[in-house]
Specification:
This protein is an alpha/beta fold and about 350 residues long. It is elongated. It folds into 2 domains: about 220 residues, P-loop containing nucleotide triphosphate hydrolases (Rossmann fold), CATH 3.40.50; about 110 residues, 2-Layer Sandwich (Alpha-Beta Plaits). The protein is about 40% helix and about 25% strand. α3 packs parallel to α5. The structure holds adenosine-5'-triphosphate (ATP) and magnesium ion. The site of adenosine-5'-triphosphate has 12 residues, from β2 and α1.
């Protein structure tokens, strides 16, 4: 449906989109994820014919989007990241205003707009000034407006930003319904878990590059299936260095000797603690499937690339080594941390 090939966009010397390649099939809900400045808005605007590309090809249903921006605007509905100001326009007038831009008659717009406002749950706001709508309502009105000319492709730039959980949920429902109607949808966000729930596929972009794209499961697998295992060790706390109790400290010279003794004791504890740490670190690193071992304040986090059976073996092994395990659990495979890992680790500048 949408094919992007070697798309590059420079703003002056600044490279905002770098040789991007992407295919999106008809009926897909594609989530475009990336941190601020990744190039999401730039790419989306080019796809919608609102911004010129520096080089590359974009086709929508075989139509060259870079050369036929008027045709493309009929095929595409765009929901920008900012709503804009519309003094003195009521909701229905706002829909009529956008419909007229596509050459639609008032009657046609009214009929279609009725259905669209119902779809986005704004039927009771037809005669309200748009500037008085809440943010969530404005976002949904934007979606309705972008659908007025019945486009095949809907491009939404962060439709969920600034929405409360209820409004996010409602937006998600609207988009799922549109997906069920067979529309192809591209939606951008900073929040990967949110998109993963409603998207059929996602692309992760950072610094102008598409780092990875595909179905969420595929991306999770590609990332090596690395998981994190949290381990607590009972006697680590016994040897853990403790803070001296400041309330007992005085300026008295008599107590100086005691202080010295306490400091020595502290030092001893610290040494034992770091020796234990080193020992445990070495033992853990020797275990199969363990790629990294990190000590935090009160637990050990082990990066692990084995399956369930392998993690059971790990637990058995470390108990067998005489380590006093008090807790052992696998962190739930978390999309947010995957996203952070990918965008952080993927940067090459
Ligand atoms: N008109 C412009 N002139 C110069 N640089 C621009 C312009 N528009 C965007 N950029 C730069 O291009 C890069 C990509 O911007 P873009 O808006 O596409 O990012 P984004 O992924 O949408 O970010 P955000 O998540 O913050 O919306 C940024 O570094 C931005 O500063
Ligand atoms: Mg943006």
């Amino acid at each position: 449906m949408l094919v992007i090939e070697n798309l590059t966009k420079r703003y002056g010397k600044f490279l905002a989109v770098d040789n991007l390649n992407l295919h999106i099939e008809k009926g897909e809900i594609f989530g475009f994820v990336g941190p601020n400045g990744a190039g999401k808005t730039t790419t989306m605007k080019i796809v919608c014919g609102l911004l010129d590309a520096t080089s590359g090809n974009v086709t929508i249903d075989g139509v060259d989007a870079l050369k036929n921006s008027d045709d493309i605007k009929r095929k595409v509905g765009y929901v920008p990241d900012f709503f804009g100001v519309y003094d003195n326009l009521k909701t229905m007038e706002y829909m009529e205003f956008f419909g007229s831009m596509y050459g639609m008659s008032k009657e046609d717009v009214d009929e279609i707009a009725d259905g669209l406002l119902e779809l986005v749950n704004l039927s009771d706001k037809k005669d309200v000034f748009v500037d008085t709508l809440s943010r969530g309502m404005k976002q949904r009105l934007c979606v309705a407006r972008a659908l007025i000319h019945n486009p095949d492709l809907l491009v939404l730039d962060e439709p969920n930003s600034g929405l409360d959980p209820r409004a996010r949920f409602e937006m998600k429902e609207v988009l799922k319904n549109l997906g069920a109607m067979g529309k192809t949808i591209i939606i951008s966000s900073h929040i990967l878990p949110e998109l993963s729930e409603m998207c059929t596929s996602i692309g992760i972009m950072d610094k102008g590059h598409l780092i990875t794209s595909g179905h969420v499961d595929e991306i999770m697998n590609e990332s090596g299936g690395n998981s994190k295992i949290h381990i607590r060790i009972a006697d680590m706390h016994g040897t853990e260095k403790s803070q001296p109790d400041k309330t007992e400290m005085t300026d008295s010279i008599d107590l100086e000797a005691d202080d010295n003794a306490a400091a020595k004791q502290e030092k001893l504890k610290e040494d034992t603690y770091s020796r234990d740490k080193d020992r445990i670190q070495t033992l853990l690193m020797e275990q199969p499937n363990v790629t990294k071992v990190k000590f935090t304040e009160d637990e050990i986090i082990v990066s692990f690339n084995g399956d369930e059976k392998a993690s059971a073996t790990l637990l058995k092994n470390i108990i067998g080594l005489g380590i006093n395990v008090s807790a052992f659990y696998k962190e739930k495979e978390d999309l947010e941390s995957l996203f952070l890992e990918i965008t952080d680790g993927g940067a090459d500048e």
